[in-house]
Amino acid sequence: MTASDVQLPENATELLEYCGVAERDRREMLAARPDPEKHPEWWVLTSALATNLEQNLEKPLPSTGHRAWPVVPESSTQVGMYAWAWALLSGLPRLLEVHARRGVPEAVTRATVGALGGVMGSHREIYGRSGVGLMPLWGPPLRFRGADYEIGRHSFTRTHLGLGDGVSGHLLMIHVPPIGPLDPTVSEQSITAAAQFFPQWYPNEPIYGFVCPSWLLDPQLAEYLPAESNILTFQRRFTILPLLPPSTPYEGDHELMRLALQLAPPEGPLTADDLARVPQDTTLQRAFVSHLSSGRHFHLRTGIRLTSH
């Protein structure tokens, strides 16, 4: 597929409903449909992302990683705010064919593509604007290319394990969508189901283990949360790998602020004014402010757990 081959679906309303997009967001997205004649710049970008989805359809996440789709300027029109959502939607018909061919239950398919509706709701909550453009889209592109599936409490990304000279095995990367409490029983049921499902869907990708990169695995949280809390219970299920130097000192702060606190992080380090706008209703909110006020930072940590063979 090339950019000139990209076609936006005619049954967009039906597909958006299938993706769990709220009625208000459906209405606004349909009104912001990019047109190659009226919006040539946005059309080129939308087409490029749609083409990228098609080219990577069914490919696992490489061991070299994956970059989130870029955010758009805050001054963007509604067409720009929804352009990436249109790119995702353009690939949905082919994704549904893949799921059907692999034997993926429809409940899993609906939950997986429901990420589109979820990210629109989070975008409105965090940024006060409709669309998806201000939020770095990491997970949704993986879901719409057949690399990531939501099964119960977690989503799981098919990932290559690389050890220096090529692919050495396969892992499932665990994600924890911000959709409510991290109940230990529900979490473990989700992981167990994934271990059963993926060998059926992808028999040529034997699963060596699970890996989870997340702020949830930062051991510093134990300074603030009770030992029996859901987060610390989740941590104990993994072997935490050594801390690698972050891209910026405040990388983990931004992730925790955006994903856990559902607040828009600033461009750079958090200031006293940024911390002042964090509510102090929950233990995690108070821990966030206390930790950063003391001059420290939270970190994204990676945990691994092996499957039993």
Automatic annotation (TrEMBL):
<dbReference type="InterPro" id="IPR041273">
    <property type="entry name" value="NAT_N"/>
</dbReference>
<dbReference type="Pfam" id="PF18082">
    <property type="entry name" value="NAT_N"/>
</dbReference>
<feature type="domain" description="N-acyltransferase N-terminal">
    <location>
        <begin position="11"/>
        <end position="132"/>
    </location>
</feature>
<dbReference type="InterPro" id="IPR041644">
    <property type="entry name" value="GNAT_C"/>
</dbReference>
<feature type="domain" description="GNAT-like C-terminal">
    <location>
        <begin position="168"/>
        <end position="304"/>
    </location>
</feature>
<protein>
    <recommendedName>
        <fullName>Acyltransferase</fullName>
    </recommendedName>
</protein>
<dbReference type="Pfam" id="PF18164">
    <property type="entry name" value="GNAT_C"/>
</dbReference>
